Amino acid sequence: MIEVKNVSKIYKMGKEEFAALNNVSLTINEGDFMSIVGPSGSGKSTLMHLIGGLDTPTTGSIYMNGKDISKLKDKQMSKYRNSEIGFVFQAFNLENTQTALENVMMPLIFAGVSGRERKVKAMSALKLVDLEDKAKNKPMEMSGGQRQRVSIARALVNSPKIIFADEPTGNLDSKNGRNVMDLLKDLNKKGYTIIMVTHNNEDAREAKRIIKIRDGQIQEVTADDI
């Protein structure tokens, strides 16, 4: 499904260069649940952003179903991000002035979906995360766990193939974090491919595969190795 081939990402800091990723290769299969772990600054989020089309590699290629997404132009990349993948962030990234339903409908607006169909699809996504009763609530009227579930519904609304979760439990207490992890595992059982960046080793151990990054290099490890 996804093939990362000899990818490096170099950042320039003044006169110096920093390799966030150094000649990384990786294959992610359909239906995988992969966690990416490693210390701060190791390249975890960089790898996720490259696969998710939020950034482009300095060298190397990233293939999605045989298509090199690292060569896509801006409009093609925007279409890829909006139709093929969904993002879940630690900080939720919800619009506080809009309701849960309106937040979930946002990707559908960019996709050109009509008004009535937008509402139907957004309500279906909220139902999938068991929050249809909070459709009219704004983010500040919900708990952190509920807000994260709204962001997951937003990620699901365009029926993407892959969900990228960047520290999805990082702003949650243990109970709400447990609920979010259970939801991600349930989505994986339904066929979604999940790629999760986390500092939480307990969360990481629940994935089917664990990738450890250090100094721009990756290694596939077992739950006992973290």
TrEMBL record:
<protein>
    <submittedName>
        <fullName>ABC transporter ATP-binding protein</fullName>
    </submittedName>
</protein>
<dbReference type="InterPro" id="IPR003439">
    <property type="entry name" value="ABC_transporter-like_ATP-bd"/>
</dbReference>
<feature type="domain" description="ABC transporter">
    <location>
        <begin position="2"/>
        <end position="226"/>
    </location>
</feature>
<dbReference type="InterPro" id="IPR003593">
    <property type="entry name" value="AAA+_ATPase"/>
</dbReference>
<dbReference type="InterPro" id="IPR015854">
    <property type="entry name" value="ABC_transpr_LolD-like"/>
</dbReference>
<keyword id="KW-0813">Transport</keyword>
<dbReference type="GO" id="GO:0005524">
    <property type="term" value="F:ATP binding"/>
</dbReference>
<dbReference type="InterPro" id="IPR017911">
    <property type="entry name" value="MacB-like_ATP-bd"/>
</dbReference>
<dbReference type="Pfam" id="PF00005">
    <property type="entry name" value="ABC_tran"/>
</dbReference>
<keyword id="KW-0547">Nucleotide-binding</keyword>
<keyword id="KW-0067">ATP-binding</keyword>
<dbReference type="InterPro" id="IPR017871">
    <property type="entry name" value="ABC_transporter-like_CS"/>
</dbReference>
